[in-house]
Amino acid sequence: MTTERRLTQVLADEADALTAKTAGRPSPPVVLLARARRAFAIAGLVSTVLAEHGVPARDAYDLGDRLAEAACAALDPVVGPELVAAHRADLRRGEAQKIAQLAEFDLTFLTRIGEPVIDDAMVTLLADLSDLLAGVAADERALPEQHRAARFAAAQARELRAHYGGDAGGW
Hints:
This protein has helices spanning 7-18, 29-53, 60-79, 81-86, 95-110, 117-138, 144-163. By secondary structure, it is mainly alpha-helical. Helix 2 packs across helix 5. The longest helix is centred in the first third of the chain and has 25 residues, at 29-53. It is globular and about 45 Å long.
């Protein structure tokens, strides 16, 4: 990941990865939840960077981080540490720092004041995340604890999406 790559592209790639098939077949619910966990980790990180560096500063970006953290906390016991690690859902190995640098770079050099490019990309990611989680919540293959975690995380995704401006919401 270099600074030539925009944060918006990272967010778009993450949205695409949410519904990727496993060996040409639909992914099991637990794998989808691991992907959702990763998307929440990224959304929380982006919200943190926006809270620290966004102009105009919006206190509600802190809320975005808290919503994402709550969703991750609900998904962690259902997904388990092995799948969290396998899907890089914990953003280890320097990945969090690289994504934060992209966000800071975009905010500093590429995004004009008042331009909602990052917010728009977050709305898209969060809409796809909401759809994915609604699908897991309705999936007959999912275990009861997966259904519960998916429903809770879907509510967090919907609220976070609304705060980023989805469905005419906004900070």
